[in-house]
Design goal:
94 residues, alpha+beta, YaeB-like fold, 5-stranded mixed beta sheet, 34% helix, 32% strand, globular
Length: 94
């Protein structure tokens, strides 16, 4: 199954603010990894379903950064990227 990848406006604004090494890691590793796991929608060490949300997941990007995204139907939408201290309060993001 092929998923359509989208990015929210907020995500695009935030991705340029994170360090360049995090940006490279996201586009090289995280992007294809998330697309693969969107099919199975299971948690592992890097991917975790967010409690209290039906379609929201987070990807652990290294030790300190997180990517929040939504899988709904055949769409994967990247919603937020940031330092883990900032993104811990997911409820305030959406």
């Amino acid at each position: 199954m092929t998923y359509e990848i989208e990015s929210s406006t907020r995500f695009l604004l935030e991705v340029v603010r994170v360090p360049q090494r995090v940006q490279k890691s996201f586009f090289k590793d995280a992007h294809p990894y998330i697309q693969r796991y969107a099919e199975t929608q299971t948690s592992d060490g890097k991917i975790k379903k967010l409690r209290g949300y039906k379609y929201l997941w987070r990807y652990k990007l290294g030790r300190d950064y997180r990517v929040a995204y939504r899988v709904k139907g055949k769409n994967v939408t990247f919603l937020k990227i940031g330092h883990r201290k900032i993104t811990q309060k997911y409820s305030k993001m959406f």
